[in-house]
Amino acid sequence: MQCPLCSNEISDKAYECTCCGATQVIRRSPAGIVIAWIAMGVGVLWGLFWLLLLLMLVTKQSLAGFPWLILVGGTALVAGLLWYSRKTKQKVWVRFNN
Questions:
Q1: What is the rounded distance in angstroms from the CA atom of residue 25 to the CA atom of residue 79?
Q2: pTM of the model
């Protein structure tokens, strides 16, 4: 195998190139980062829905018109987006500047 940065011959199981000092690291892909930010934004909004539900329970309001499907579906959507974001990791060779 060759180092992707300097084309020096290295072992297949190497995590570091002795010639140029490049290191193999695991990072999230750019798409995974964007999905994570979207999930956090939607998660904040759904957190407000949960607080609204708690407030309605404390003040003994009627829950007949509460959007249960949106609450449960949105919570599952946020969990799914965060799970997908976590799975978008990739191996990248980087050279650290000292």
A1: 26
A2: 0.69
Burial of 22 (0-12, 13-18, 19+ CB in 10 A): buried
DSSP letters along 16-47, please?
B-TTT--EEEEEE-HHHHHHHHHHHHHHHHHH
C-beta atoms surrounding 35 within 10 Å: 21
How far, CA to CA in Å, does 62 sit from each of 50, 57, 58, 74?
15, 8, 11, 22
What pLDDT is recorded for position 8? 84
- pLDDT for position 81: 93
What six digits make up the tokens of 45?
């909004």
> Which pair of tokens denotes residue 26?
């695991």
